[in-house]
Amino acid sequence: FKASRGWTENFKRGRIFHSVVRHGEAVSSEAKAAEAFAMELQKLMASECYLLKQVFNCVEMELFWKKMPKRTHITEEEKAVPSCKPMKDGLTLLFCAKAIGDFKVKPPLVYHSKYPRAFK
Question: Which InterPro entries match (predicted)?
Answer without folding.
Answer: CenT-Element_Derived (IPR050863)
